[in-house]
């Protein structure tokens, strides 16, 4: 699901040696796999090892910059893939149809049959309804921007270790003139979209390059997890800056209120616990890797380990959530000490559609 493609494999014929101008046959093996961005900056090409060594003092600063860019890009894609897995394996929406109308995907829930207190609140993710991978990503990302940062916070902290100069969060309003967008369809074709604000991260690398990290942008048609900040700014109306960790704190605070919304949030909490254990286990099985080491591996090894880890996390979450997490609303209420009858009297219980 990684959305930032690595650079094309080196091919000779189209490049001149950066040192002598002859026909080049290979790109710098250290930085050649960096994703290509709109700035068109890419690895340098050489005809032989002599020219590569001779050019090193000149190439070194660019090489370091590209390596840092590649690490951040890998970190962003990895976290985004983890989030998609997290959400797919803890789906709590009974989706019955997805329709496309005026560039907007309407996700139709099953409003006819309410959730029952003693029936599972989890539903297999409706993969059959997903028209393609981009629709699936949009649905998995929908209304989840703060949740994604909350559940991925510790993973992001580890991945970014020693990589950045500055990191913060931003709340933005997305321009959606020509992009596909994902909304939840309610009774009578009404659309559940009160708030257009979207939450992203802003990372300044030590090289000075600044990037937007958007894990859940797919709901607005933005599928790339890492985008140069200036480019991202052209797709939004305005950004309000927050300290890194704000999204996590907002959800944490939300959980302190003992209402229906926070009770249902406990589903994600349960999944979050399993996620942490499963990811730790996956890294251990991948040879005792740490997250900072993972994104520093050479390209083929990185791809292989990343696939292995993502598969393990998905299988782990798939098996463990059903076995070890409370799955009915009543079980959750008992485990987390909520007053269920008071909660059922709240207005929200009818809106969300819960019946005893
Ligand atoms: Zn040369
Ligand atoms: Zn290089």
Structural features, described:
Helices cover 43% and strands 18% of the residues. The chain contains eleven helices and 13 strands. Helix 1 runs parallel beside helix 8, helix 3 (145-159) packs across helix 5 and helix 6 crosses helix 8 (299-324). A hairpin with a 5-residue loop joins strand 7 and strand 8 (191-192). The protein has helices at 49-88, 133-141, 145-159, 229-233, 246-256, 260-285, 291-294, 299-324, 329-335, 340-344, 347-352, and strands spanning 26-27, 45-46, 95-101, 104-109, 115-116, 164-174, 181-185, 191-192, 197-205, 210-213, 226-228, 236-243, 354-355. The chain has a five-stranded antiparallel beta sheet with strand order 11-10-9-6-12. Strands 3-4-7-8 form a four-stranded mixed beta sheet. With 356 residues, the chain is an alpha+beta fold. It has two domains: 71-254, Roll (Secreted effector protein ssei fold); 255-355, no CATH class. The site of one zinc ion has 6 residues, from helix 1.
Topology:
Layout: E1 26-27, E2 45-46, H1 49-88, E3 95-101, E4 104-109, E5 115-116, H2 133-141, H3 145-159, E6 164-174, E7 181-185, E8 191-192, E9 197-205, E10 210-213, E11 226-228, H4 229-233, E12 236-243, H5 246-256, H6 260-285, H7 291-294, H8 299-324, H9 329-335, H10 340-344, H11 347-352, E13 354-355
Parallel strand pairs: 4-7, 5-13
Antiparallel strand pairs: 1-2, 3-4, 6-9, 6-12, 7-8, 9-10, 10-11
């Amino acid at each position: 699901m990684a959305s930032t493609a690595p650079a094309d494999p080196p091919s000779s014929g189209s490049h001149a040696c950066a040192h002598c101008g002859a026909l080049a046959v290979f790109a710098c093996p250290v930085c050649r796999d960096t994703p290509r961005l709109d700035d068109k900056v890419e690895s340098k090409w050489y005809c032989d090892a002599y020219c590569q060594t001779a050019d090193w003092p000149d190439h070194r600063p660019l090489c370091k910059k590209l390596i840092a860019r590649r690490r951040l890009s890998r970190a962003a894609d990895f976290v985004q893939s983890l989030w998609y897995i997290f959400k797919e394996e803890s789906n709590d929406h009974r989706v019955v149809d997805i329709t496309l109308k005026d560039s907007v995907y309407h996700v139709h829930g099953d409003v006819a049959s309410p959730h029952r207190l003693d029936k599972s609140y989890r539903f297999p993710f409706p993969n059959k309804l997903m028209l393609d991978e981009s629709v699936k990503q949009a649905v998995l990302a929908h209304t989840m921007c703060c949740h994604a940062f909350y559940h991925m916070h510790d993973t992001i902290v580890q991945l970014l270790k020693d990589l950045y100069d500055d990191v913060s969060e931003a709340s933005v309003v997305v321009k959606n003139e020509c992009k596909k967008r994902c909304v939840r369809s309610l009774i009578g074709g009404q659309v559940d979209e009160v708030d257009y604000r979207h939450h992203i991260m802003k990372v300044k690398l030590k090289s000075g390059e600044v990037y937007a990290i958007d894990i859940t942008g797919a709901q607005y048609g933005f599928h790339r997890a890492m985008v140069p900040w200036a480019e991202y700014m052209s797709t939004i109306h305005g950004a309000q800056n927050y300290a890194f960790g704000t999204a996590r704190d907002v959800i944490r605070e939300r959980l302190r209120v003992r209402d229906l919304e926070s009770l249902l949030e406990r589903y994600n909490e349960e999944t979050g616990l399993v996620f942490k254990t499963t990811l730790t286990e996956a890294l251990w099985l991948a040879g005792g890797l740490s997250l900072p080491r993972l994104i520093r591996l050479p390209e083929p090894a990185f791809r292989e380990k990343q696939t292995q880890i993502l598969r393990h996390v998905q299988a782990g979450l798939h098996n463990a959530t059903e076995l070890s997490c409370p799955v009915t609303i009543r079980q959750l209420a008992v485990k987390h000490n909520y007053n269920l009858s008071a909660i059922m009297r709240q207005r929200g219980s009818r809106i969300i559609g819960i019946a005893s």
